[in-house]
Amino acid sequence: MNRKTLDPNQSPNARFGERLRRLRDERGWTQDDLAERMGYSGTHISAVETGRRSPTPRFTQSADKAFGTGDQLERQGRAARNTAILEGFPEYAAHEMRAAELRMFELGIVPGLLQTPAYAGAIASGAVRRGAITEQQAEERLALLAERQASLERTPPPLVFAVLDESCLRRSVGGPKVMAAQLERLIAFAELPNTVLQVTPYDLGERRPFDLPVRLVTLPDRSVVVYAESSIQGRLDRDSRVVQPMMTAYHQLQAEAPSQTASVAMITEVRKGTL
User: What is the pLDDT along the chain (275 residues), one digit of tens a residue?
Assistant: First the structure.
C-alpha cells in the first residue's frame, strides 16, 4: 500500500492529520473503519490525515466521539483552523505541485506563483499590520508560497497560462523599488518557453468573464480541477458540470485579452513609471 509519510511540522492541519492517523493506527482501524464510525467517507478521512482538508468542527467532534478522546481533537482542530491558509487551498496546492498545465486569472495582486519575495513579503506584512493574520501565520503563508514556486522548476515543467487584470500592475505594493522588480519578474516569466502571460486592460469591461481569482489545474492524467476563492473562502471542484464552463470561460478570456507581446509592452510601460 502506498502510504504517504506525514510531517506534523509542516502545518497545523498536518499536525492534526498525523495525530488522527496515529490514533487510528493504535486501534488497528483502516480509514474506511474510521469513516464508518464517524459518518464520513474513507476519501474524506484520507484528505484530513494528509492535511489536504481542514478538520471542521463537526468532523473533530465526531472524531472525539469515535476515539473516546473527550474534546482533545476538537481543541486541536480549532487551533488548526486558526490559520491564514484558506480552507480548500492545501488540497489545491497539492494538485498544483504536480500539474501538467496551470491556468490562472488574477486581479488586484500579482498571482503568488509569480511574486518576488519582496512583493510577497509586503503583502504578508500588510496583513499583519491590519491584524488580519499573525506573524506566525504570515510565515506559514510565505513558506507555502516558496514551496509552490519551487515546484515550477521540476522537470518537465508545467505549462503555465497566466491572465492578469490590469489592476495587478497598477496597484502599488511595497513601494516603487518592489514594484519595479515585480514587473521585471513578470517580463522574465513571459520569456520562459513553457509560459504564456496576458494582461486584460480595464476597457475589457463586461467582456471579462471572471470577477474573482480562478485556477484551473490539468493533472498528468488530463483530468482538470478548478479552484476559485473569495477573501474568506476557497473551493476546489472536480465536477465536469463546473469545470467545463470554467474552462470555456477561460479560453474566451484568453481570446479577448491582448497578445503576450502587447501585454509585455504594457508591463514595460507601467514599469517605467516606477523608476
Answer: 567 777 776 667 788 899 999 999 999 999 999 999 999 999 999 989 988 787 888 899 999 999 999 988 988 887 666 555 666 677 788 889 889 999 999 999 999 999 999 999 999 999 899 888 788 888 878 888 898 999 899 999 999 999 999 999 999 999 999 999 999 999 999 999 999 999 999 999 898 999 889 999 999 999 999 988 766 667 788 888 999 999 999 999 999 999 999 999 999 999 987 76
Domain tally, the chain: 2
Q: What is the Cα–Cα distance from 163 to 189, expressed in whole angstroms?
A: 12
The domain of 195 spans 89-272
Q: In this structure, what CATH number is given to the domain that contains residue 184?
A: 3.30.870
Q: Examine the domain organization and report whether 177 and 139 are in the same domain.
A: yes
Between strands 214-218 and 224-229, the pairing is antiparallel
Cell of 107: 486581479
Among 81, 109, 142, which residue terminates a domain? 81
Single out the residue in 44, 64, 81 at which a domain terminates. Answer: 81
Q: Where are the beta strands (DSSP E) in the chain?
A: 101-106, 159-165, 195-200, 214-218, 224-229, 234-237
Does 243 lie in the same domain as 119?
yes
Q: Are 253 and 163 in contact (CB under 8 A)?
A: yes
Whole-model pTM: value is 0.71
Say how far apart CA 254 and CA 275 lie, in whole Å.
Answer: 30
Cis-peptide, bond into residue 117, ω within 30° of zero: no
